[in-house]
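Final paragraph of the annual report: two paired records, presented back to back.
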Amino acid sequence: MSTVTRTRLTATERQEQLIAAAIQAFSQSGYAGTTTDQVARLAGVSQPYVIRLFRTKQELFLAAVQHAGNRIEAKWRKAAEEEPTLESLGRAYKDLLQQPELVTMLLHGFGAASDPAIGDPVRTCFGRLYDVVRELTGASNEEARDFFAFGMLLTCLGGMRLVGPDAVPPQPWAADLLGTFENLT
């Protein structure tokens, strides 16, 4: 007779597990198209448990957006430890494009920002990333604007699955655009 020992997750580990499931679910179906029940099934927990931890779908969504922002900030801070330049942070962001759920989660956050309860936290998250870039690199307003403009283009291309591990064959316009990038992959 074999005994199966289960390791009980801490509250923090369970919350991280739910946020990972939320990122997966929201990146596939967006804010409006995702239910807390779908997130619960992905995480292997009950829907009431999700609500107990996050209270509402909106709070879960915002936690997922915040997690995506935190991952980007952490990646940039690590890159800046070695080389505090916009180029270094750009290379770090390109690495993040290999995680399509993260990129798509950001896009869904931006898309849902017209909802006032979602918009303020999403704008705060984006503003924090802007401030971090300026802090880490000493970039001017214009340099930071150009960095984010290029990053948003990459984010949109990633969301359309034109870059990243699950990239689809590009249409002619996309092949032309992608051909203008150096070392994108």
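The closing record of the year follows.
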Amino acid sequence: MSLPQSTLALDVDRQPGKPPILTADAGADPAQWTTRNRDALLAVLAEHGAVLVRGLGLADVDRIAATFHALSSDLMAERESFAPRDDHGQGVYSSSPWPQNQPMCMHHELSYALRFPGLMFFACRTAPTDGGATAVADASAVLDALPKKLIKRFERQGWLLTRSYNDEIGASVAQAFGTDDREAVARYCRANAIAFQWQPDGTLHTRQRRSAVVRHPISGRRCWFNQIAFLNEWTIAEEIREYLLDTYGADGLPFNTRYGNGDAIEPDVIDLLNAVYQDHTVREPWRAGDLLLVDNVRTAHSREPFDGPRDVLVGMGAATSLADCSPTIEVTTP
């Protein structure tokens, strides 16, 4: 299949260890430039899974929103977030808050939801003085590098996400579901195959089982698509994990992951997953004004520790249904 003619005008810089990088026309209006080159950008994204656009000078929320909308007309409102975001309106959110000295390990945004973004957009308003890259990893390459026996188990059983909503760690019920009305939360959970239970102290516990391996809805490529390692207790820094266990107990952790049959995932498996991600990670330090496009099914992303201020805004586009990605397990309430 031939790419749009405008693709030929985009000079893609490919270097080992970095995502593909494009440079926008000097002085171009970011939304107009993106609209003019949309087909070409999406073609590069389809080929590589991620692309960084440099030189757009993105800084103003309205311009960032217009640029995101030029790439996807259906920016999603986030539901089931694991951490609270600031909502800037127009489908633009802050990055998920996370301790800046701790890595936010590789994951696919909302991979535990039945509807998730097919595309992720990141706009850097302020670059950190050191670190803080939004790194990416090819999910098909990660899948190919994992032990076949482990893959077969996850294909057969899926993975289980458990959550305990409280007012201290992670998103609150209202932030995750858009309401704290118990009946509305119950309706959402039933409609999205989430087992739920309100505790005597008012906290909400949920469980949801999802596929760990899916097929890309357009290319059909098999991808390791989940948040098994990122949201597992063994990825959390030891001192933070011990505090959470002492405070909430093993069954009350804000989030944790298990094999789909409910068995605990061994620490060495989590270490292996994170090591394979690291082997396939590419990164480019942020510069103010940068735009990063990520195919959320094909490509995992992370956020590395950093020093200094960091302001990266996020948009979620191309809403995608898990049912269109050939899940390996039936979606039922666990």
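The longest helix spans residues 267-279. This concludes the annual technical report; the extension proposal builds directly on these records.
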